[in-house]
Amino acid sequence: MSQHPAPNSEVKLVDVRFLLLPLPEFNMLPFGGFLDKLRFSADEEDYSQQRYCQWTVAGLGAGTITSSSGITIEAQHSLAEVNFAEFDYLIVFGGRSAQASMQLAPDYQPLLRKAAKQGIILVSIDNACFMLAAAGLLNGKKTAVHWRHEQEFNSAFPHIPTITEQLYCIDGKRISCAGGAAAIELAIELLSRHSGRTRALKGLADMLVDEARQQHHHLKSLQDDSQSGAFVGRHVKRAIAIMRQQLSLKISVEDVSAQLGISRRQLDRLFTEGYQMTAKDYWLMMKMNHAKWRISNSTMSLQLIAEEVGVSDVSYFCKVFKRHFGITPGSLR
């Protein structure tokens, strides 16, 4: 796929220009979804001609960038040689690890600050928000964060307000997207602003996408525990959503049931019917599974991970973890 601009005779037709910056070990789903949406809207047919929107892929240096799946793409330009004034948006695609993305901040910060000073809109997708935050480029801005990384982001950047109930968030010259397939919706929104809704929606059927989800779309998969195969009602689904959203808060099951407008006893009965365990046991399982994932996939201290799941005493956290999994947290590292 050509990354070069259209011929000079067609430059006047271009509505919007994107500079795509995938970080090392970037995730293919948001990158591919975003780019393919641009491609379908770029011309009248399906020729991948960059007439109405243009895109260029850049890296910290020119050359190959390896995705989290091992697939490589070619960055034909280094970020240092790019003229930011030629673009409307700089789209940064995060890597597989939030910690790794955050540690890249010193390398990218000078160039990202330069881009911001020249008026380009900075967009973070997936874990790229960690890098932009570490570079001081999200101060005072609301940020859409993937629900799995909300607690980690809040721990690292408590001064930055986070949003997990939106697919993306537009706050002035900063835009953030939770990642995954939500990158397609973000591409549609940005294209709509410059090329109109009709052109922005072009190609959705080819992508086998039924419809563009709204910014505040609530994920059904976030409410359902599909792995268990359990059939549960709306109260339990809502309770699970609340538990995920308030993983680090020291609130009780009584507080959750109060938010639902039902009693603690009724909530326990519903969880026992669906999962053969009480609501408290289910919430503990959720917290321990999250902690186990964080221990295996980050370098965060056990103290911070314990705080992420609402436990202030790390010794107690280790005891509960061992009782739950039969191994100590340290054995996973």
UniProtKB/TrEMBL annotation:
SMART domains: HTH_ARAC. GO terms for molecular function: DNA-binding transcription factor activity; sequence-specific DNA binding. Pfam families: DJ-1_PfpI, HTH_18. InterPro entries: Class_I_gatase-like, DJ-1/PfpI, Homeodomain-like_sf, HTH_AraC, INH-QAR, Tscrpt_reg_AraC-type_HTH. The keyword DNA-binding applies. This is AraC family transcriptional regulator. Residues 237-333 form the HTH araC/xylS-type domain. Keywords: DNA-binding, Transcription, Transcription regulation.
